[in-house]
From TrEMBL:
The lineage of its organism: Eukaryota, Sar, Stramenopiles, Ochrophyta, Bolidophyceae. Coiled coil: none annotated. Pfam families: Sdh_cyt (PF01127). This is Succinate dehydrogenase subunit C. It is found in: Membrane. Its main location: membrane. InterPro entries: SQR/QFR_C/D (IPR034804), Succ_DH_cytb556 (IPR014314), SuccDH_FuR_B_TM-su (IPR000701). SUPFAM superfamilies: Fumarate reductase respiratory complex transmembrane subunits.
């Protein structure tokens, strides 16, 4: 059986200087300095580009739609947890909902329930369709489907708010 070399030099991996075509080993003092640098300093030293920050990156419509489906799912989970907590601590959720429905907060409350529910549901139907027909997943169709999910959920939400 072959044994790996265990000398100190065999365990050290050489660091390549930026722009060099051949490998240049940096001294152990430089290697220690390299390890003390933060990530950005190390990338600058190696002339590597840094990805843009999330706040300046322009997300495609499809990414925004996917994020919104996930966020609406989390919001629905919080809502169901809140209703469960009210029930658990002796409250009456149906009485609470009726009192909100009769107040001036009725339309905003309906929107806060109907939009996440419809968006998440229609987004789920979209994904089920994509799972059943993978040939329909093209860049153009995916973008159209993202707009359709938004439009459909806004229509359903508007109808629910008018009831």
């Amino acid at each position: 059986m072959l044994r790996a070399a265990t000398s100190q030099h065999a365990l050290l991996r050489p660091l390549v200087s930026a722009g060099a075509r051949s490998m240049t080993v940096i001294s152990s003092k430089s290697a220690e300095d390299y390890k003390k640098q933060n990530y950005t300093e190390r990338q600058d030293r190696l002339n590597r580009p840094v990805s843009p920050h999330v706040m300046i990156y322009a997300f495609p419509v499809v990414a925004l739609s996917s994020i919104t489906v996930r966020v609406t799912g989390v919001l629905l989970s919080f809502g169901c947890t809140g209703i469960g907590a009210v029930s658990l601590f002796g409250g009456d959720p149906s009485l609470l909902m009726a009192s909100i429905g009769e107040s001036s907060l009725a339309v905003p409350a309906k929107f806060c329930v109907a939009f996440p529910l419809s968006y998440h549901f229609i987004g789920g139907v979209r994904h089920a369709y994509w799972d059943a027909t993978p040939d329909a997943v093209t860049n153009e169709q995916v973008e159209k489907a993202s707009y359709a999910v938004l439009g459909g959920s806004l229509l359903v939400t508007a109808a629910a708010c008018m009831m």
